[in-house]
Amino acid sequence: MNQTHIDFWLKEFEHFTTAIVANGEVPSSELSIQLLRNMKRVICCDGALQKLLSINIIPDVVVGDGDSMDREELSRHNIPYHADRNEEYNDLQKALKYCQANGYGEVLLMGCGGLREDHFIANLSILAMYTKEMHLTMLTEHGVFNVLRGPSSFRSLPGMQVSVFARSPHTKLTFTGLKYPVNNRSFKWLWEGSLNEAVEDEFVVEANDDEPVVVYRAL
């Protein structure tokens, strides 16, 4: 990623002060590390503690059930631990509930992709679920995921790869500012809204209902 793209994404995320790091692919790119260092607080799912320490990021708190946590590292770095042993939720949900309880309503999710694809699909579903209550963005090492909150405009660069996924085949979508525009169209299959491309510095996605619609922008 060149400096122009790094600057673009740093501007995109400059208003975030809270990040959650899940136990997926280590957020090790130059962009990810700069973002983590800029955060006011970094909340770590317990299985990701060693990964964060490996890139010299010390989290402000570790959240989870403790089943995959290194307590010696917690003690060595004096990191607070918030225990949540509720078996109904995974560690990403526990971290989100911790944010809600502490009034952190705008959160950047990191470390949610890579490794196990089933975990990643589950994490996308969690993103869609909690976006109804919080302002969330998911950043992987390859792209950015958002869920629509009504008609939404997205910053872009010409040539940026874009995909749009609607959960319901009854949702009618409209795209403007993309290479392949769509007008009030529903998609039966997830792939039908994928592999589009930005042609301007902004594009808009609109949906006719409140069903989750996920928008992906490649880094």
Description:
The chain has six helices and 14 strands. It has 219 residues and is α/β, with parallel strands linked by helices. It has two domains: 14-142, Rossmann fold (3-Layer(aba) Sandwich), CATH 3.40.50.10240; 152-218, no CATH class. The model has no long low-confidence stretch (mean pLDDT 92).
CATH superfamily of the largest domain: Thiamin pyrophosphokinase, catalytic domain
Q: Order of helices and strands, N to C?
A: HEHEHEHEHEHEEEEEEEEE
CATH topology type of the largest domain: Rossmann fold
- Tertiary shape: globular
Number of helices in the DSSP assignment = 6
Structural class: alpha/beta
Percent of residues in helices comes to: 25-40%
Give the amount of beta strand, in percent: 25-35%
Beta-strand segment tally: 14
Instruction: Please give the CATH architecture of the largest domain.
Output: 3-Layer(aba) Sandwich
**What is the domain tally?**
2
The residue-averaged pLDDT reads 92
Could you name the ranges where pLDDT drops below 50 across 5 or more consecutive residues?
none
Strand order of the largest sheet: 4-3-2-1-5-6-7-14-9-12
* Biggest sheet character: 10 strands, mixed
Amino-to-carboxy terminus distance = 8 Å
- Our Rg estimate from Cα atoms comes to 18 Å
Determine and state the CATH class of the largest domain. Answer: Alpha Beta
Task: State the gist of this model.
By secondary structure, the protein is an alpha/beta fold. The chain has two domains: 14-142, 3-Layer(aba) Sandwich (Rossmann fold); 152-218, no CATH class. It has helices at residues 3-12, 30-38, 49-54, 71-77, 91-101, 117-130, and strands spanning 18-21, 41-45, 61-64, 81-83, 106-110, 135-139, 143-147, 152-155, 161-166, 172-176, 182-186, 196-197, 202-207, 213-218.
